[in-house]
Structures are given as C-alpha cells and as structure tokens.
Design a protein that fits this description.
The chain has helices at about 5-40, 45-70, 75-110, 125-175, 180-215, 215-245, 255-285, 295-320, 335-360, 365-390, 410-430, 430-465, 470-480, 485-515, 520-530, 540-575, 580-605, 610-625, 625-640, 680-685, 715-725, 765-780, 810-815, and strands at about 535, 540, 650-655, 655-665, 665-670, 675-680, 690, 700-710, 740-745, 750-755, 790-795, 830-835. With about 850 residues, the chain is an alpha+beta fold. It is flat and about 145 Å long. About 20% of the residues are buried.
C-alpha cells in the first residue's frame, strides 16, 4: 500500500520535469542573447569579429604607409600586395562567419512576428524582451558587417593601386633614357676597374674564411646538393631513359621519337641541374657558408650557369648539329652549327650581363657602369642577329645535310635584321633598359616558348590514334599489365594530355617570371585560380571541383570493390541464388553512385540553390518529356526488389523469348537462343504478360508427340515409350513419366510422351536422344509410322440427250454426228491418293 503514494509522487515529479524542460526549450532562444550579454564580451563571436575588424584597420593603415614609402621598390610592392590580398580574404571571412547567426535572428524574428498594434491585446513581456534583444544584436551584426564590407572595398582599392604602381614602375624602368657619350664610357671604365678590384678582394677574403672555419658545412652542402640532383637524375633515367639519349643504331627515327627525345632530354636534364643549383644555394645559405654580400653573387652565378646550360640543351635538342637524322628543323649541318653557336653566344652574353649586374649591386657600383654593361650586351646581341641573317642555313634542295645550304626565307631574314638593327638603335639612343629587356626575352623566352611548343607537338603526336603503341613506354605497359591495342591507344591519349599539362605548367610560369612577374604574383594568381573563379554571380573553386571529383572517384571505386567483395566472398560462399546476387550488386552500385555524387557535389562547394529556379521551370517539361524514362526507372526498381524473374531465367515476353542476361533500372537484356540480345524496357515487363519457365525452380515438363499406324497395338506402343524413357537418367522419376493416348487421327493413332526434367535446359538433348531411340525401336518391332493421307472424291455428271429439233438442220446434224453422245450417266469414279507430308509430327 505504501508503493501507491510513492508511485504517484514519482509520476508528478516526472510531469513537472517534462513541463519545465518544455518551458526551458521555448525560452532558450530568448535567453541566449541575455546570456550572451551577461557573458564576458571576449567570448562572444560578435565581439571577436569587432576585434578582428579593428585589427584589420590597423593592418590596412600600415599597408597604406608601406605603399607610400616603397613606391619605387617593386619587390617591396609585391610583398605589400600579397599582404593586402591576405587581409582582404580575412575581412571577407569575418563577414561570412556572422551570416549564420544573422540568419538565425531573422528566422526567429519572423516566428515571433511584429509587435501588437494599438488596440490589440498586449503580448507577453518575455516576447518583447526577446524581440528587442534580437533586434539590437541584429543591428550590431549589420554594423560589423558594414565595416567589413567597407574595409574590403578599401583593401581592394589598395591592391589595384599597387598593381597600377608596379605597372607604371615597370614601364618607367624600360623607357628610362640615359645619355650615351664618350665621357660616360670613360667613367664606366674607371668604375669597372675599381669594382673588379673590390670584388676580387671580397671574394678572396670570403674564400679564405670559408676554408678555415666553414670547411665542413661547405662539403656537407655540396654533398647534399649532389645527392639531391643525382636522385632526381637517376629517377628520371629510370622513367625516361629511352627519351634522354638518342639511339645511334636507329637510321630513320620517327617523328614522335625525335619530338619526345628533344622535349624530355631538355626538360629533365635542365630540371636536374636546376635542382643541383637551387639545393646548393639553399644548403650553402642554410649552413651559413655565404656572406650577405656574396650570397646574391653566388645565386646569380648559379642562375647564369642554369641559363647557359638550358640554351645548350635546347640547341642540341632542336638543331642536333652532329646528328642530322634527329634534327627537328630543315637545316644543313653547317647552318645548324652556326645557328646553335649564335644562340649559345647570346645566352652567354645575357648570363654575363646578369651576373655582372648582380656583382655591381652587391658592390654598390655606380649607375653608369650598369648602363654601359647593358649597352654592350645589347650591341653584341644585335650584331649577332644581323650576322645570322646573312647566312645560308636552310637545307639544300636535294636533302643532303652536308651540302651547302640555302639562304633564309626572305621574310625571316628581314625580321632578323630589323630586330638586330632595332636593338642597336634603341641602345645607342639611350633606351638601354628596353634594349636589354628585349635582348633577354629574345633568347630566353624564345627558347622556353619553342621547348614548350615541342612538348605540345610531342603530346599531340603521342595522343594520335594508333601512334602510342610504337613507343617504349607503351611496350612496357603491354608487357607489365597485359593491355590490348584499344587500352594502349586510350593510354596514349592520357599520356598526351599529361605531356600537355607538363609543358604548360612548366612553360607558362617561366614566361611570366621572365616578363616581370614575381613568385608572389604567381602564388596569388594560382590561389585565386584554384579557390575562387567568378562567373557572373557564381563562384567556382577549381580546387574544390578537383577535390569533389577525386572524392567521387574514390567512393565509386570503394563501391565497386564492395560489390566484388560481397559477390565473390559473402554471397558466393553462402550459395546465394544468382538472381539475388545480381539484385544486391545492382542496388549497391546505384546506392554507391548516388552517395558518391552527393559527396562530390558537397566537396566541390557547388550551391545547388542557384539552379532551383531553373529546375522548377523545367520540371513540367521534364515530367512530360522523360515520363517514359522515369516509368522504366521505377519499373526497374520494382523488378530488382520484387524479382518476378532474375538473371538466368527462361522468360517469354511478347515476341521475345530467351535467357535474362542483365537487369538494369531502365531496361532488361534478354538473349534469345539464336544469341540475339533484345533490350526490353522495364515498363513493358511490368505492365505486360511475362512467362517465366524457371521462376521458382528449373523443373519443367517436356513432351514428344508420336503417331503410329492403325494396325499397331496401342499398349505395346505405350510400353515401349515408357521403357525407353526409363533408361534416361536425366528424366525425373517423381512425377513419373506417362504416355497419353490423345486421339484417333485421320490416318494414325496419336500418342504423347510426357516426362519431367530437373533442368529445362536439358530438354532439347533429351528429346533428340529419345526420338532417335523411338525410331530405332519402332523399326525393330515393325511398328509403322504412317504418312499423312488425303482422300479425294471426283463426281462427273452425264450430259442430257439432244432433242429432235435439230433434224431440219443437216449441217448441225452432220457436225453433231461427229461428237459422241452419252445418254446414260457415267459411273462415279473414286480416286484415293496418298500424299507424303514432310512436316509430320513426331
């Protein structure tokens, strides 16, 4: 009896607890602003956003001051532009982070509604307080968001201003004019002697210091640099060994072989040397071997070496001075050597100009020395171009590379002379910076562009149909992965696209760097390209799209692996029916593709709400235009779930009869017994009549009709048929075979042998064997299988006697006397004919 009060008390407490929880849930959103107001301001997202905005304003002021102070320093402006771009992204992030809270406030205010008007009943005080708190918080968020937007606009203006300053600075540097006179040359000569003396003294003191105190770091840096270069070079030879050296045994190398060796030998070997030089400088500087005044000089020396080596590899790859059969251009041997030497000489001149310029900056040499040095370089390159234009490098008409060549085409010779004379004239008129820039771009940018073009030609040649199979890499893939011609041809397309990507991703950044861009510019451009590409009002992230594609491919491959694992390990070992296995595999496949698509689209960051209006507008048209497809799709799902037939069943649908080979969500593939594949839409199989001979099992009845002559003993015939059937092991004993006496036919006694088989697929063979045995046994027993017979009865009527009315007509009597008259009815003739029927049953 004491349990009842305790139980009532417990129920009452639980009821109060549920009611209190409901009240707290209703007031939670209203108390959230109050709790936020009572909490420390530093813990609220709004306060954090305010502090970040204040901090961004301070950074913007510092950037503006830095731009004013470094208006003439391009390197400093590049760093400031990078910081401004980072600040712009940070400000946008502040505004984006406040949007979810602002959306919550708007939704809650819409739920609460407007305050009551005059004359309406007053609302609860807690609702009024909640509305006021939310409105105040919304006003604060709008204020912070407005500050962020204004700050973002200001930062964008600053970035544009820096870009314009850099463009103007670049143009001023190129178009700056310097007076060229004899006194300038004299001053430059004296400055050169003084600078050389100071540099040699500084270099000697540094070398002595390094040998005494930095010997071990020096050798360690050299060893690590060589190791890095050797690793890259050895790996390159293992992967591209056949493309790095020319086979002297090949008499007539193919065009694709010449292109590939020219491109890969230039690229791989130049990259290997570049790795050696870059890592050497990095380790020397990291081990404190280089002094601040020597480090730029060593870096310039490494850059000059890399430039000369690259041009040398380019000349050897394109012109092949000593191997005319590998040459990519139609030049004579003498022409190829002369043009190669001229290009290499121009590269050496540019490299020395760059090296001496760096030494001058390190030694703080006067401007006049830089001007004269660039003048000399421009004059030398101009003279080289003019001298080359008068040569005879073109291949002779007979195609002999050793024969004297022909002159340049007229247009090419004129271009070389105009460019060379223009360089000389520009330098002599005082525009030394412009002349030096053009001369540098002629050799370096030209070499990069031609190498990139050769790479694109290589990719095009490899991706051409049935061209990749002749390469070494294709033969390796054939041996290693047992690929067929079609797969190799498809791999050639992939390899060609990869070569395109390598040529563009290496060549375009190099060209941009040569034309005045900095590494920071390329980083900023790549970041914007991969993270935010705006097309109208849509923002696309290439990096997000690539990530989405990779995730889709990963989930799809995981789905295929799960399908194979379930089918080959779980269901196969459990002896699951083939149709069930097919349904499970198909269902998992479609489910996995759907999940992969959702994950890929979500990772790509594509906002599908932008397409909602278009989808709603097209929904009606899609509903009418694709109703058959949707019907087949739904029918396919019903077939996979309900399984009225499965893969391997013997079905009859309309005019199609055969074995089910595949069931998809749109159509079902039925293979007839003549090996013809019939694709039947699933809606027809759902809405029409479908006969399934093997729905639950493969047991089926088979019949053999037999006809014998009337003189045969019916019981003997039945016994013979049952006896022959009992000798066949494939015939089931339960139900047992039996013979049906069907009818008394027009010319035979008709029987039908009926028996059951465990597998309907054996019916044809069993029936054939049984027919042969029945025929042999009937012949042995003297039982006749009659031929079809047909009875024909022909009735012929007698002619009536002619009257005497024709006696007065002698001519007619004479004529009629010649024709015999039949006065009595002729007897009926009966004709019985037997006809053979080739298409008889049994």
């Amino acid at each position: 009896m004491r349990l009842r009060p305790i139980l009532l008390r417990t129920i009452l407490l639980l009821t109060l607890a549920v009611a209190g929880a409901h009240f707290k849930g209703a007031a939670a959103f209203a108390q959230e602003p109050q709790a936020a107001a009572q909490a420390p301001l530093a813990d609220t997202p709004l306060d954090q956003a305010t502090k970040e905005i204040d901090k961004a304003k301070v950074q913007l002021t510092a950037l503006q001051d830095g731009v004013k102070q470094n208006a003439d320093n391009d390197d400093a402006l590049v760093g400031l532009a990078t910081k401004a771009d980072e600040l712009s992204r940070a400000v946008i992030t502040i505004s984006v982070n406040l949007r979810p809270r602002l959306d919550q406030i708007k939704n809650r205010l819409a739920e609460i509604g407007d305050p009551p008007k005059d004359g309406q009943p007053p609302e609860a005080e807690i609702v009024t307080q909640e509305r006021n708190a939310l409105a105040a918080e919304r006003a604060q968020i709008n204020a912070v968001t407005g500050d962020a937007e204004n700050l973002s606009i200001t930062v964008t203006k600053l970035v544009n201003e820096v870009t314009e300053m850099r463009r103007r600075l670049f143009a001023d540097t190129l178009l700056r004019r310097t007076e060229i006179s004899v006194s300038v040359l004299d001053d430059a000569g004296g400055a050169f002697v003084h600078e050389a003396s100071e540099f040699l003294q500084a270099l000697s003191s540094w070398a002595t210091f390094v040998w005494k105190f930095k010997r071990f770091p020096l050798f360690a840096a050299i060893f690590l640099s060589l190791a890095s270069a050797l690793i890259l070079l050895s790996g390159s030879y293992r992967l591209f060994g056949s493309y790095l050296r020319r086979d002297e045994a090949v008499e007539n190398p193919s065009y694709i072989g010449r292109l590939s060796i020219a491109f890969w030998s230039t690229l791989i070997r130049t990259l290997a040397l570049s790795v050696l030089l870059v890592t050497s400088f990095f380790f020397l500087n990291g081990f404190n071997v280089l002094r601040p005044d020597i480090a730029p000089v060593i870096g310039a020396l490494f850059g000059a070496i890399g430039l000369v080596y690259f041009v040398g590899r380019f000349v050897n790859a394109i012109f092949a001075p000593n191997e005319p059969r590998w040459r990519l251009v139609r030049l004579s041997n003498l022409g190829a050597r002369s043009i190669g030497y001229c290009l290499l000489a121009m590269a050496v001149v540019n490299a020395l100009d760059y090296l001496f310029g760096t030494i001058g900056e390190a030694m703080s040499s006067p401007l006049v020395l830089t001007v004269v040095r660039s003048l000399i370089a421009a004059l030398i390159i101009g003279l080289i171009l003019i001298s080359v234009s008068f040569g005879k490098p073109m291949l002779a008409k007979n195609g002999d590379p050793d024969a004297p060549g022909r002159h340049w085409p007229r247009g090419m010779a004129i271009i070389l002379r105009v460019v060379g004379a223009g360089l000389i004239l520009t330098a002599l008129t005082g525009y030394v910076g412009l002349a030096r820039f053009v001369a540098t771009q002629l050799i370096i940018t030209g070499a990069v562009v031609v190498t990139m073009y050769v790479g694109l030609l290589s990719g095009k040649a490899i991706s051409r149909q049935e061209s990749f199979g002749d390469t070494f890499f294709a033969r390796f893939l054939t041996r290693r992965f047992k690929l067929g011609p079609v797969a190799i041809d498809q791999a050639g397309l992939v390899v060609g696209l990869a070569i395109y990507a390598v040529a563009l991703l290496v060549g375009i950044p190099l060209i941009l760097l040569l034309w005045g861009f900095h590494v920071q510019d390329l980083q900023m451009l790549a970041y914007r390209l991969f993270t935010e590409v705006r097309l109208g009002g849509i923002s696309i992230s290439l990096l997000g799209i690539c990530t989405g594609i990779l995730l889709f491919a990963g989930v799809y491959l995981l789905t295929r692996w799960l399908q194979r694992w379930l089918d080959g390990n779980v269901m196969a070992r459990s002896h699951v029916d083939l149709g069930v296995r097919n349904s499970v595999k198909t269902g998992i496949g479609y489910l996995g593709v759907g999940i992969a698509a959702i994950i890929g689209v979500s990772a790509a960051g594509i906002d599908l709400s932008s397409f909602a209006l278009v989808a709603s507008a097209l929904s009606v048209g899609i509903g009418f235009g694709l109703q058959n497809i949707v019907s087949n799709f739904v029918s396919g799902l019903i077939l996979l779930v309900e399984r009225p037939f499965k893969v391997g069943d013997h079905v009859v649908s309309g005019t199609a009869e055969g074995i089910v080979k595949r069931i998809s969500v749109r159509a079902t593939e039925i293979e007839t017994f003549r090996k013809q594949s019939i694709i039947v839409p699933n809606s027809e199989l759902i809405n029409g009549l479908v006969g399934n001979w093997t729905h639950r099992n493969k047991i089926g009845r088979s019949e053999i009709p037999v006809s014998v002559a009337y003189n045969a003993d019916p019981q003997q015939v039945m016994d013979i048929l049952l006896e022959l059937t009992a000798k066949i092991p494939l015939v089931m004993r339960n139900p047992e075979p039996h013979v049906e006496f069907l009818r008394f036919g027009p010319y035979s006694l008709d029987f039908e042998l009926r028996f059951f088989l465990a597998d309907m697929g054996d019916g044809m063979a069993v029936r054939n064997n049984l027919r042969i045995e029945i025929l042999k046994r009937f012949k042995a027993e003297g039982i006749e299988i009659p031929l079809p017979q047909t009875d024909l009865t022909i009735h012929r009527e007698a002619r009536p006697a002619l009257a005497d009315a024709g006696r007065d007509q002698p001519n007619e009597q004479e004529n009629s006397a010649d024709t015999p008259m039949e006065e009595e009815e002729q007897p009926v003739r009966q004709l019985r004919s037997k006809t053979a029927d080739g298409n008889r049953k049994g």
